[in-house]
Task: inverse folding
């Protein structure tokens, strides 16, 4: 009698404390290694740090140096171009592929694998492969010219005005399959009876997609947007492998800027300031999205 | 493999604590390619002949960027290596952090001040005391040419800029790409500094890129430099964007292109392809830079050691690096020339002999200048800002006037 009650209280104790105990190491690790280092970077961005960290308060000088740097603005503008187009085309292509695959076709499993496969490659591999394909001397342009279309030119990779768009092409190729998978899962999760009801009402298939299915994918849109925007903002490896930020600095992005200034140019302070600007950009995208999403969830 | 070596070293250190620490040097470097690794092996052999154990700390890749990151962690954790491959003004930056060792006694005993050109020894000193030992000298203002291509085009190897453009036109007419170039920022800067030295001369170069004099940087000579560079740009093919320097060298080797502006590490590519200097390829000064010499020097900076035995081993390392025997064998393998002016040059090839002769002459004539494209002339922040402007100029329709204004602004970045 007394034994079972003490066992019961032990259970209660374990129920209360075990989850906390199990989670605490990971919590502590992320507090230190994520939020702690964010705070450290933030602090560094207000110091005079050059080659190594130096903890003397310097106010906003590093931010001032950053905003006066023309290269930073090139990088920021490129992020705008790349981020906007990358997200837009990934959404469009991914959604289109998901809708087409949703038509109960044969060999769907195989096709899905084909489209999803690029996601299995690292961005470095994608970048290197597309670098060869887009190279005017040996890639796409050469193939078409060799076919007899001698006027054909496709030299975006080496054209300073267009290089950033080649990054968009490679990025969309890599990530749209993943977006497709998410949308497809979302489409499959929708109750069949809604579709049947709409069919009984005489709605055509495009109308059903446009008015019922795609709007009900709203939560999926939210996750996709979140993942894509943060892939875009932190993108480093793809650009590094594909164009190296070049020609010149024409396809530079903030992550490359940050790396070079912090680690190879002895300007840790400016690097830290640019890292903070990237963080702020992510927060600026994230907070409104999350606010919108939680508000609409409450309304339902 | 590395782990095994590390654990072996730890084991050895724990078994013979005194003996192991008594004579250990640990050198951080990124000489990892074929010829370079052979050169380092020589140093290792010479050190062990003196009873000093060599602990290799090679970090490959990134032109030393990775190695610098590794070095920073080691220094921050209070455990710096004996020496590290650091060059140019970066030596001053590390000196300012207060972590470099004073090896002035070794230098005085070896009479380094006499052996080295003053411009070079100044780089090796922090606040008047030697803190680093030079290993080799690379000349940057070379023009590499394919004589076969020149014969085919009926052109002569140029000595001045007007001759250069005449030759380039002839090459173009003969269907040969006049200039092989790789459109990476550091290569753009390498080309720029050869043009600047050729157009402006050594005095201009010193004032603009070493003293960072604002009026000189913003002056009419810089505009002329950019105008010339803009003209040179038109002889470069569109595929140059992002091309590695050795691929550009290969274009000269196989006759696809006529000329390349590149430092003397390009020679390694020619000789590896079985080409003979003077016969299969020509090394000459970049147009207008006769008797002038832009140098890029690799050096080993010494870090403060707590253990007195380690300090002794460090002194031995510094003395060995500057010994004529080492300077000869290392540079024969690496393709560069010795930093010591009195090293015998008999075993070197013609390009190296010319390089060594020109260095002595340039040193006497005050025409020995540090290469800024290779981080020898100015703080890394300034250098980075300038390289940004130059590669922007190479890859846009910016005018010479605009480029000059922006270069002057970049020169003020510290």
Result:
């Amino acid at each position: 009698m007394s034994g079972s009650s003490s066992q019961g209280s032990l259970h209660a104790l374990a129920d209360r404390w075990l989850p906390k105990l199990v989670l605490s190491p990971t919590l502590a690790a992320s507090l230190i290694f994520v939020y702690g280092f964010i705070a450290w970077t933030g602090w560094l961005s207000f110091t005079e740090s050059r080659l190594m960290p130096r903890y003397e308060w310097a106010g906003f000088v590093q931010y001032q140096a950053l905003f006066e740097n023309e290269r930073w603005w090139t990088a920021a503008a490129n992020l705008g171009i790349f981020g906007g187009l990358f997200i837009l085309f990934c959404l469009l292509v991914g959604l289109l592929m998901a809708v087409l695959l949703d038509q109960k076709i044969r060999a769907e499993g195989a096709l899905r694998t084909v489209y999803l496969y690029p996601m299995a490659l690292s961005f470095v591999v994608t970048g290197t492969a597309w670098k060869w394909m887009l190279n005017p001397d040996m890639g796409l342009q050469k193939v078409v010219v060799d076919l007899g279309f001698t006027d054909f030119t496709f030299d975006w990779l080496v054209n300073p005005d267009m290089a950033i768009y080649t990054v968009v092409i490679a990025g969309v190729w890599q990530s749209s399959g993943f977006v497709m998978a998410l949308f497809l899962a979302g489409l499959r999760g929708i109750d069949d009876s809604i579709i049947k009801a709409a069919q009984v009402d005489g709605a055509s298939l495009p109308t059903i997609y446009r008015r019922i299915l795609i709007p009900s994918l709203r939560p999926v849109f939210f996750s996709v947007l979140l993942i894509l925007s943060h892939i875009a903002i932190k993108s480093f490896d793809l650009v590094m492998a594909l164009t190296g930020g070049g020609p010149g600095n024409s396809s530079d992005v903030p992550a490359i800027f940050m790396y070079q200034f912090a680690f190879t140019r002895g300007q840790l302070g400016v690097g830290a300031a640019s890292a903070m600007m990237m963080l702020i950009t992510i927060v600026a995208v994230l907070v409104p999205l999350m606010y919108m999403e939680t508000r609409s969830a409450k309304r339902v | 493999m590395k782990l095994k070596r590390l654990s072996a070293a730890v084991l050895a250190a724990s078994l013979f604590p005194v003996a192991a620490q008594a004579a250990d040097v640990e050198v951080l470097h990124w000489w990892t390619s074929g010829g370079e690794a052979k050169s380092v092996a020589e140093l290792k052999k010479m050190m062990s002949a003196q009873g000093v154990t060599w602990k290799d700390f090679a970090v490959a890749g990134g032109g030393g960027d990775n190695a610098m990151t590794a070095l920073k962690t080691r220094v921050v954790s209070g455990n710096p290596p004996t020496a590290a491959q650091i060059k140019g003004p970066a030596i001053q930056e590390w000196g300012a952090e207060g972590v470099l060792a004073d090896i002035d006694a070794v230098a005085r005993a070896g009479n380094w001040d006499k052996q080295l050109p003053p411009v070079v020894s100044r780089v090796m000193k922090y606040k008047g005391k030697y803190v680093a030992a030079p290993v080799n000298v690379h000349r940057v203002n070379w023009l590499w040419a394919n004589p076969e291509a020149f014969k085919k085009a009926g052109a002569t190897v140029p000595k001045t800029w007007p001759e250069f453009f005449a030759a380039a036109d002839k090459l173009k007419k003969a269907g040969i790409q006049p200039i092989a170039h790789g459109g990476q920022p550091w290569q753009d800067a390498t080309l720029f500094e050869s043009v600047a030295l050729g157009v402006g001369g050594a005095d201009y170069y010193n004032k603009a890129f070493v003293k960072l004099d604002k009026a000189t940087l913003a002056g009419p000579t810089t505009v002329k430099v950019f105008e010339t560079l803009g003209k040179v740009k038109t002889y470069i093919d569109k595929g140059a964007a992002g091309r590695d320097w050795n691929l550009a060298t290969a274009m000269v080797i196989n006759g696809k292109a006529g000329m390349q502006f590149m430092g003397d590490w390009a020679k390694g590519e020619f000789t590896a392809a079985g080409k003979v200097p003077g016969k299969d390829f020509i090394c000459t000064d970049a147009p207008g830079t006769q008797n002038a010499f832009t140098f890029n020097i690799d050096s080993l900076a010494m870090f403060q050691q707590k253990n007195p035995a380690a300090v002794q081993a460090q002194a031995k390392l510094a003395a060995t690096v500057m010994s004529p025997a080492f300077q000869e064998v290392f540079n024969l393998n690496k393709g560069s020339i010795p930093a010591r002016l009195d090293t015998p040059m008999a075993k070197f090839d013609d390009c190296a002999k010319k390089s060594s002769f020109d260095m002595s002459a340039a040193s006497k004539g005050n025409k020995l200048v540090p290469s800024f494209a290779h981080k020898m002339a100015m703080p890394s922040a300034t250098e980075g800002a300038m390289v940004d402007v130059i590669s922007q100029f190479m890859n846009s329709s910016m005018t010479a006037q605009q480029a000059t204004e922006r270069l002057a602004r970049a020169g003020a970045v510290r």
